[in-house]
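Thread amino acids onto this structure.
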């Protein structure tokens, strides 16, 4: 491993020393410097593009080219004749200046190569072929090579540290609401251009009056041969493992024409290649955004999803997945656009975890726990959209998104504190989300917009747990030396269970129905070219009904309604909760030089009511929420953004329900009817720079939040027990959080170095056994990467990740460290063989010792006769070192845990891919 890294570093150093600097200035005929002029250097011997650059505000450019070579330097600028010059390099720097003149005719100079990167205002255009080496197979492989663009650990696209909100192909939406499906499925050989659209406005009429600073979209332009024809590929393969026969089938088919498009994606495999996870499903927005998202009001409807154990890096002990998705768009005429998609997902997952849990107040509670889990998920999602735009002054949009699923989780837990526990969770929720928008431009100074959204949601989670019980020792106590009582005896007594059973078979039915309407009307008045004012009238109304019941199944299979001795005997819930917010907002925007100021406020009339057990509680109040935004446009490609907002946070019905609820067998919860809202102050400072003069991209974010009256949890744990009885309260101590994220990327010739750093701090307060505890969590994560982007030579990527998780819970402090060097390598051999491999070493430790170290090594070798061949044959190996587990740490309000997580064994598969 060390020898390989040293060899690659020597290769990088030798390549850097073999280059020389070529720089100069580009001006127009009257001597004014030209910013954003394109400069390319074409090697006359190889006829390859060796370097490219873009001039800075002073018209300067700087390229790194090969020594002792002859180049044709071409400079282009919109509205100017293309300039060119022959340059011969030696071992010293070269200066070459250009003067461009206006041109109203066709350019006489033939551009042999397109500019790899072109900046046009808020749009960055990448020529995909300029970054390909021949080993790319999907969109993600190309995007990861583009300066300023990154594929994060979740498979989503980020540009300068900001997540991309929309992916389009030829201007048509591609599964709106998720970028992962695009990165993993669109074939690389179909891509001509990648357009990054900064400050992207969903509605063109509002582009000049709305704040789109964090909105980024990507549009994929296809090669000419891929339009009006079906394209894509079909992959099929199989293999063997220690236990099962392996299979993989992955069709990916696409059709694009000016009037309509069709995308079909499928994936069936049992080797853990997950096209779409359960987490992806619940995070999938479908492109829906709340109309009142910037009003200062946050109302949480809560989540009653099952407490599924989550996959770690899309790995598990066993994963079988079935996935199908189809996306379409159709324009019957120039005024109407129709689009939609359907997604079906079916996963079967086995997980095994071993956890060491340390509790903050009593070491006698510390628990070792092993869990074996089987998850089943069958999910479906369907969206339909219509956009009607009869003219430039009117636009009407309608969207509907429906979701449904059927899920279950069987879990067997062996606990050092509780013994054997068998758990079953199941749920069949559904939801329908509808969106209606209308935009009207009266004239050049007056714009109106109506946005309305309705959500209907029905959730029905069921929970069952079976625990050990010895009826003869119920009252002996946990400290009885001869026959201590069972760990669950005390809580069973509190819950009113029959303790004369051979086991505790406890059950809970829940039903949560939610309806929410969110609507607003906006009016913009354009005062002049530098200022405008916006008035907003909006409302949010939500209603939630929550029912739950805890009961015990006895040994004779009859059901027993318990009678708790705690919580005033309440173990059922029947609560109706309504919330309303009527608000009026005003914002004024002023442009002055490089500054854009947008101060504003919103005035809210709030009403929160809940009715349970014949007791009504109402909380009505008025609040004024200020906000402020400043944009400092230092240069065309460099800016600073500052945001401040005061926000009101409201809870969901689960926190208000007074009856007992089982979060799981070891966590019993009861809400508080008179919970109040929380008030938060939020500050954000961001910096972005995309500098093509010195090939440096920098992005940084600083966030700070202080919350008053935050809802926190009071927990009660009997001595020596891990059973947690908790309830919420409004903390009179402020919670704070701060984070700093920075990313620097530098390109020198064919080498690109990237460094990222993330630091976060959270401070919150809670009560455990009526004692106050202040939790402070510090997280640090650093990542460095050096990669190459040769067109013909092999490419490599060296990476190193270092993270610290520091948890201070008052009575104890724990630190966990992760060190993870990595190597990736890919090469096109003899223009027919594609070899790829990646290796990662992980060391997981605390302050005293290494807890575990593990390695992951994957590799593949593919044969394709040439780039135009329809057939490709591939051997792919996963987890070559047969690593069986990995580690992670996590922190909760009352404990810190270190977990060993088991993963799939070594897999070897053979695949055949056919290109349409």
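Threaded sequence (916 positions):
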């Amino acid at each position: 491993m060390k020898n390989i890294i040293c060899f690659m570093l020597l290769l990088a150093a030798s390549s850097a020393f073999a280059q020389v600097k070529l720089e100069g200035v580009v001006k127009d005929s009257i001597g004014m410097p030209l910013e954003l002029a394109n400069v390319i250097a074409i090697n006359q011997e190889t006829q390859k593009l060796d370097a490219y650059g873009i001039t800075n505000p002073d018209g300067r450019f700087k390229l790194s080219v090969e020594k002792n070579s002859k180049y044709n330097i071409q400079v282009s600028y919109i509205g100017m004749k293309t300039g060119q010059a022959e340059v011969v390099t030696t071992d010293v720097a070269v200066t070459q200046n250009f003067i461009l003149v206006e041109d109203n005719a066709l350019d006489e100079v033939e551009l042999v190569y397109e500019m790899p990167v072109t900046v046009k205002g808020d749009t960055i255009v990448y020529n995909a072929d300029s970054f390909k080496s021949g080993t790319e197979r999907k969109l993600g492989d190309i995007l990861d090579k583009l300066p300023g663009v990154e594929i994060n650990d979740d498979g989503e696209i980020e540009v300068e540290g900001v997540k991309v909100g929309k992916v389009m192909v030829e201007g048509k939406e591609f599964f709106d609401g998720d970028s992962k499906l695009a990165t993993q499925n669109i074939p690389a050989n179909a891509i001509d251009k990648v357009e990054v659209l900064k400050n992207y406005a969903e509605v063109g009429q509002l582009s000049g009056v709305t704040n789109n600073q964090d909105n980024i979209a990507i549009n994929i332009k296809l090669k000419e041969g891929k339009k009006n024809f079906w394209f894509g590929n079909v992959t099929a393969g199989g293999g063997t493992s220690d236990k099962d026969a392996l299979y993989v089938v992955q069709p990916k088919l696409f059709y694009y024409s000016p009037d309509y498009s069709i995308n079909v994606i499928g994936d069936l495999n049992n080797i853990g290649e997950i096209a779409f996870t359960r987490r992806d499903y619940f995070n999938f927005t479908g492109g829906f955004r709340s109309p009142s998202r910037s009003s200062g009001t946050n109302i949480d409807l809560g989540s009653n999803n099952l407490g599924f154990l989550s996959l770690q890096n899309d790995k598990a002990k066993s994963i079988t997945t079935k996935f199908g998705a189809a996306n379409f768009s159709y324009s019957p005429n120039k005024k109407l656009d129709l689009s939609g998609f359907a997604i079906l997902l079916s996963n079967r997952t086995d997980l095994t975890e071993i956890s060491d849990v340390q509790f903050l107040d009593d070491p006698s509670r510390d628990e070792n726990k092993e869990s074996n889990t089987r998850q089943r998920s069958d999910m479906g999602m369907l969206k339909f959209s219509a956009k009607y735009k009869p003219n430039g002054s009117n636009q009407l949009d309608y969207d509907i998104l429906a979701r449904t699923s059927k899920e279950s989780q069987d879990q067997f837990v062996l606990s050092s504190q509780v013994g054997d526990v068998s758990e079953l969770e199941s749920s069949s929720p559904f939801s329908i989300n509808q969106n209606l928008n209308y935009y009207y431009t009266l004239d050049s100074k007056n714009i109106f917009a109506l946005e309305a959204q309705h959500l209907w949601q029905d959730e029905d989670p069921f929970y069952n747990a079976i625990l050990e019980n010895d009826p003869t020792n119920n009252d002996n106590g946990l400290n009885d030396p001869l026959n201590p009582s069972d760990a669950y005896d005390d809580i069973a007594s509190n819950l009113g269970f029959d303790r004369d059973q051979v086991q505790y078979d406890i059950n809970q039915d829940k039903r949560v129905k939610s309806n929410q309407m969110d609507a607003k009307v906006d009016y913009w008045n354009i005062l002049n070219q530098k200022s405008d004012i916006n008035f907003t009238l909006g409302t949010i109304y939500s209603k939630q009904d929550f029912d739950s019941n805890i009961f015990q199944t006895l040994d004779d299979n009859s059901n027993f309604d318990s009678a708790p001795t705690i919580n005033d005997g309440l173990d059922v819930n029947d609560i109706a909760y309504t919330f309303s917010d009527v608000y009026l907002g005003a914002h004024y925007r002023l442009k002055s030089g490089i500054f854009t100021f947008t101060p504003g406020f919103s005035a809210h009339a709030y009403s929160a009511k809940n009715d349970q057990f014949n007791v009504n509680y109402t909380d009505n109040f008025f609040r004024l929420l200020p906000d402020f935004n400043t944009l400092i446009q230092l240069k065309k490609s460099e800016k600073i953004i500052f945001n401040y907002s005061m926000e009101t946070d409201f809870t969901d019905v689960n926190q208000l329900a007074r009856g007992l609820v089982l979060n799981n067998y070891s966590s019993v919860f009861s809400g508080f009817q008179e919970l109040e809202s929380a008030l938060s102050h939020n500050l954000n400072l961001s910096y972005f720079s995309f500098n093509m003069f010195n090939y440096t991209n920098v992005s940084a974010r600083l966030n700070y939040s202080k919350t008053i009256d935050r809802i926190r949890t009071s927990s009660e744990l009997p001595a020596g027990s891990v059973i947690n009885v908790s309830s919420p309260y409004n903390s009179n101590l402020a919670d704070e959080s701060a984070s700093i994220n920075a990313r620097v990327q530098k390109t020198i010739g064919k080498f690109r170095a990237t460094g990222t750093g993330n630091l976060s701090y959270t401070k919150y307060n809670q009560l455990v056994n009526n004692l106050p505890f202040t939790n402070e969590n510090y997280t640090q994560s650093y990542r460095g990467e050096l990669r190459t982007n040769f067109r013909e030579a092999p490419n490599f990527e060296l990476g190193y990740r270092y993270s610290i998780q520091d948890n201070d819970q008052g009575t104890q402090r724990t630190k966990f460290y992760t060190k993870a060097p990595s190597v990736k390598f890919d090469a096109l051999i003899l223009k027919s063989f594609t070899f790829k491999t990646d290796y990662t070493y992980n060391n997981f430790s605390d302050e005293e010792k290494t807890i575990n170290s593990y390695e992951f090594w994957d590799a593949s070798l593919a044969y394709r006769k040439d780039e135009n061949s329809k057939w490709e044959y591939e051997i792919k190996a996963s987890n070559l070192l047969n690593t069986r587990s990995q580690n992670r740490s996590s922190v909760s309000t009352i404990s810190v845990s270190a977990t060993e997580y088991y993963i799939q064994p070594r897999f070897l598969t053979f695949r055949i891919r056919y290109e349409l």
